[in-house]
From TrEMBL:
Protein name: Outer membrane receptor proteins, mostly Fe transport
Species, as recorded: Altererythrobacter xiamenensis
Subcellular location: Cell outer membrane
Residues of the TonB-dependent receptor plug domain: 64-164
GO CC field: cell outer membrane
Length: 748
C-alpha cells in the first residue's frame, strides 16, 4: 500500500505552463478511477496538460478525481508566474477576491462567500494545518498551492464557508544531498534571498532547511508635510518599507511502516500597517503619497510546530496531525490619516493555537474508499489596544487645552479601546466515503462540529459565552466515460462560520454584542474533458449558493461617546449563482495557452435592510463581489545551446466590485454608492537554465495600472479636519505597482 506521505508530497513533474487560473479548476469530477486501475502519479505523467496531484479530499488524487472545483498551481508555475503571496493568488483565480489587508490579515471571498475584515470565512492551511494568525506570511519552498472553492464544511470544518487555500511545502527526500541558493533584486530597493538544503540522515531519515529574507521600500511615500508645530513625520519617507525573514526546518523518517514528519518554523515581519489611501469621493485619484504624522508599523513574530504521524494498521492507515502556533503582533494605526497628531491606535495582540486531528482511512485499492476522524482546536487571542491622544489634538479646539508646543507628539491621554481575552474551542467528528459502481461514483460525508466561544472585555467589564453544535452534510455523484477523457458531476456541500462576540460594544449596552453563525448550502455541477488528442484540458463548473445570516464587520461611531465602534453583525441572506471556465491548451511541444474566467450573480434577498441606515438592500449586490474575473497566460519554452529557456506573458482581470458603501450611504449624502473600479494587470517573465545555474527577469504590472485590492467607507476619526461626510471617509488599499526584478539561482 502506498503511504499518505508518499502520495501527498511526491508531486510528478508537469511542465505544461499551467494556467494562472489553475488549470485544475478541477471542478473535478469524482473519478470512477481507483488505484487498482489508474495510479494518480501515472495519470499526472500523461501528455494531457493541467493534471496535478492534490489532496482536496485529504487523500492523494489527480485533479481529474475530485468532485468539486480545485485550482492548483505546480511548483514550476509558482516560479514562472511569480506567485509568492496571497495577493498573487487572488489575481490569478477567477471568482476569488483575495488580498492582504492593510493590517496584514487576509481579505478574502470565494464566489461571494466570506467577508472582508475580521470575518474570514475562508481557511488557510500550511501542510494540512489551519493558519489563524499569519495566513498572509510568505512560506516559500512550496510544492504547490491548492484553492478549494465553495463550502468545505465536512473535511475542513468552521471558518471554511467559502473554501480553503492550501499551501503544500516540499518535504525532505531520503538519500539525497542537494540544495539551492537564489537571489532577486528589483526596483524600489527590492531584495530577496532564499536558501534551502536537503540532508540525508542515514537511510531512513532526512532533514530539510529553508530560509529567506526580503526587503522592499515600496512605491508609497510619506509627504512629511510640516505639522502646526513645525515638526515632520519621524522616519523615512518610504512609509511602505517592508522587511520579512523566515526559517523552516523539516524532519522526515520512514520507519518501514510508520512515517514521521516534523516541522518547526519562525517568521518575523516588520512592515507597514493600515496605509490607507484617502479618497475624497467615488472618483478615485489613486495617489501614491500619504501624509501621516508618523510611519505606522506592524511587527509580527510567529513560531510554529507540527507533527505528522502515519501508521499502517493492516489495510488501514491511522494519521495524526498535531500543531502548536504562537504569534505576537504589535500594530500601530494613524486613525485620522492626517499629518497632525489627532488619534492613534496601538494594538498588541497575542495568538496561541493548538490543533489535533486524527484520521483513520481505508486504502484506495477497492471501490469503497472512506475516512473517519476527529478534530480539536484550542485558540486564544489576547488584545490590549489603546487609543492615544497627543498634544497635537489641541489645535482642533485651542481653547480646550494648552496651546500647541513643539511637543505635539506627547501623550495627552490613553483610552482603553479593545482590551479583551478571547478563546474558541472546536471539537468535531467527521466521516467521508465514496463508492464506485462501474462508471459512476457516489460519495458523501457528515460532520458534527461543536464550537464554544468566550470573550471577556476588560475595558467594559462585560463578558459573553456561546456554545453551538452544527451538523453539516455533503453528497456527490460523478460519471466517467470508458476512456476517462470526459467527466461529469454534481455536488451538494455545506459550510459555516461560527458566531462569536464583537470587538466593541455601544456605550448603552449591558452585554457584549453577539453575532450568530452564518451558513451556506451550495449545489455545483461540472464537466471536465481532455480534448484534441489530450492537448486541451477544459473544465466548466456552474454553482448556486444559498447564503444565510451573512456576517459583516461594520465600523461606526458611538452616538453617545463619539468614540469608534467596530462590530460584526448578521446582515441577512443572499443568493449567489455563477459559472467558471478554465482551459490549458498545449498548442505545440513548446507553446502553451492557458486561461479562465468566472461570473457571479449575487444579490441580497428581499427583506434584507442595512443595519446602519435601515434602507432596503433587496436585489443589491453584496460587498466585495466582482461579477467578472479572469486570467490568461501564453508561455513558450525551448532549448538554447546546452540550456533551456522560457518566456511567459500573463494578464489578470477583475471587473468592478461592490463595496460596503451600501450599508452607510443614503440618497442625498456626500458619497454615492461607489464601487471599486475594474482593472487589468499585465506581467512578463523570462528565464534561462544552464545546468545548475539559472537567470530570470520579470516585469510586474508592466503598464503600472493603479488599482485598489479593496476599498471601503471608514469612520472619519478626524471630524471636520477631513473633508467629506462628518461620519465616514473613503479608504483604499493599493495593489502592487510596476516593478522590475532580476533573479539568479544555483542548485547543487
Amino acid at each position: 500500500m502506498q503511504s499518505y506521505f508518499q502520495k501527498d508530497y511526491r508531486l510528478s513533474p508537469v511542465r505544461c505552463g499551467v494556467s494562472l487560473t489553475g488549470l485544475a479548476l478541477a471542478l473535478a469530477v469524482s473519478s470512477t478511477v481507483h488505484a487498482q486501475e489508474t495510479d494518480p502519479e501515472a495519470v499526472a505523467q500523461e501528455s494531457s496538460p493541467g493534471l496535478i496531484i492534490v489532496t482536496a479530499r485529504k487523500r492523494s488524487e489527480t485533479t481529474l478525481e475530485v468532485p468539486e472545483t480545485v485550482t492548483a498551481f505546480s511548483e514550476e508555475t509558482l516560479e514562472r508566474a511569480n506567485i509568492e503571496d496571497i495577493d498573487d493568488v487572488g489575481l490569478a483565480v477567477p471568482n476569488l477576491q483575495l488580498s492582504t489587508r492593510a493590517d496584514g490579515f487576509p481579505n478574502v471571498t470565494v464566489r461571494g462567500l466570506g467577508g472582508f475584515g475580521n470575518t474570514q470565512g475562508v481557511g488557510f492551511y500550511l501542510d494540512d494545518v489551519q493558519l489563524f494568525s499569519d495566513a498572509s506570511s510568505r512560506f516559500g519552498d512550496l510544492e504547490r498551492i491548492e484553492v478549494l472553492k465553495g463550502p468545505q464544511g465536512i473535511l475542513y470544518g468552521g471558518s471554511n464557508i467559502g473554501g480553503a487555500v492550501k499551501f503544500v511545502s516540499a518535504r525532505p527526500e531520503l538519500g539525497i544531498f542537494e540544495g539551492r541558493i537564489a537571489a532577486k533584486a528589483g526596483t524600489d530597493n527590492y531584495f530577496d534571498g532564499e536558501i534551502e538544503l536537503n540532508v540525508p540522515l542515514g537511510s531512513n531519515w532526512a532533514f530539510k532547511a529553508f530560509a529567506f529574507g526580503e526587503t522592499d521600500d515600496s512605491f508609497l511615500t510619506n509627504a512629511q508635510t510640516p505639522r502646526q508645530s513645525g515638526g515632520i513625520a519621524a522616519g523615512s519617507e518610504d512609509i511602505g518599507k517592508r522587511e520579512q525573514y523566515g526559517v523552516r526546518g523539516a524532519l522526515y523518517g520512514d520507519l518501514g511502516g510508520p512515517e514521521i514528519y516534523l516541522t518547526a518554523r519562525y517568521n518575523e515581519l516588520d512592515g507597514p500597517n493600515n496605509l490607507w489611501i484617502r479618497e475624497l469621493d467615488g472618483d478615485f485619484q489613486y495617489s501614491r503619497t500619504l501624509d501621516l504624522s508618523y510611519n505606522p508599523r506592524n511587527t509580527r513574530e510567529t513560531f510554529g510546530l507540527t507533527g505528522h504521524v502515519d501508521i499502517p494498521v493492516g489495510d488501514l492507515t491511522l494519521q495524526s496531525i498535531t500543531s502548536y502556533t504562537e504569534t505576537e503582533s504589535r500594530r500601530e494605526t494613524d486613525l485620522d490619516i492626517l499629518n497632525e497628531f489627532v488619534l492613534d491606535l496601538f494594538r498588541p495582540e497575542d495568538f496561541e493555537a493548538f490543533t489535533q486531528e486524527i484520521r483513520l482511512s481505508s486504502d484506495d485499492s477497492g471501490p469503497f474508499v472512506w475516512q473517519v476522524g476527529g478534530y480539536l482546536l484550542d485558540l486564544s487571542r489576547d488584545l490590549d489596544s489603546v487609543l492615544i491622544i497627543r498634544e497635537g489634538f489641541c489645535f482642533i479646539d485651542p481653547g480646550a487645552c494648552a496651546p500647541l508646543s513643539t511637543n505635539d507628539d506627547e501623550i495627552l491621554a490613553e483610552v482603553p479601546f479593545e482590551v479583551s481575552r478571547r478563546s474558541r474551542e472546536q471539537i468535531a467528528a467527521f466521516v467521508n466515503a465514496s463508492y464506485e459502481f462501474g462508471q459512476i461514483e457516489v460519495s458523501g460525508g457528515l460532520r458534527v462540529d461543536n464550537t464554544t466561544s468566550e470573550r471577556d472585555n476588560l475595558d467594559t467589564g462585560l463578558s459573553g459565552k456561546t456554545k453551538e453544535t452544527v451538523v453539516l452534510g455533503r453528497a456527490s455523484v460523478a460519471w466517467s466515460n470508458f476512456d476517462e477523457t470526459t467527466l461529469l458531476y454534481a455536488t451538494f456541500s455545506q459550510g459555516f462560520e461560527p458566531g462569536d462576540f464583537s470587538l466593541s460594544n455601544l456605550s448603552t449596552a449591558n452585554s457584549l454584542l453577539q453575532y450568530n453563525k452564518e451558513t451556506a448550502d451550495q449545489i455545483e455541477i461540472g464537466y471536465k474533458g481532455r480534448l484534441l488528442d489530450n492537448n486541451l484540458f477544459l473544465t466548466i463548473a456552474a454553482f448556486y449558493v444559498d447564503y444565510q445570516d451573512r456576517q459583516f464587520e461594520l465600523q461606526t461611531v458611538d452616538p453617545v461617546t463619539d468614540t469608534p465602534v467596530e462590530g460584526i453583525v448578521n446582515v441577512g441572506d443572499s443568493t449567489q449563482k455563477g459559472i467558471e471556465v478554465d482551459f490549458v491548451w498545449q498548442l505545440s511541444n513548446n507553446l502553451t495557452f492557458s486561461g479562465g474566467a468566472g461570473y457571479i450573480d449575487a444579490e441580497w434577498d428581499e427583506g434584507v435592510v442595512s443595519p446602519v441606515t435601515g434602507l432596503s438592500l433587496g436585489g443589491v449586490q453584496p460587498p466585495n463581489v466582482a461579477k467578472w474575473s479572469g486570467s490568461g497566460a501564453l508561455e513558450y519554452e525551448g532549448d538554447i545551446g546546452n540550456g533551456e529557456f522560457f518566456v511567459r506573458g500573463q494578464a489578470r482581470y477583475k471587473s468592478k466590485s461592490s463595496t460596503n458603501a451600501q450599508f452607510f450611504d443614503v440618497p442625498g449624502d456626500d458619497y454615492p454608492i461607489f464601487v471599486n473600479p475594474s482593472y487589468f494587470v499585465f506581467d512578463l517573465a523570462a528565464g534561462v537554465d544552464f545546468g545548475n545555474l539559472s537567470f530570470g527577469a520579470r516585469a510586474e504590472n508592466i503598464f503600472d495600472k493603479k488599482y485598489f485590492t479593496d476599498v471601503q467607507e471608514f469612520p472619519n476619526f478626524a471630524g471636520s479636519l477631513n473633508p467629506g461626510e462628518p461620519g465616514q471617509i473613503i479608504i483604499g488599499t493599493f495593489g502592487q505597482a510596476q516593478r522590475f526584478i532580476l533573479s539568479v539561482g544555483y542548485e547543487f
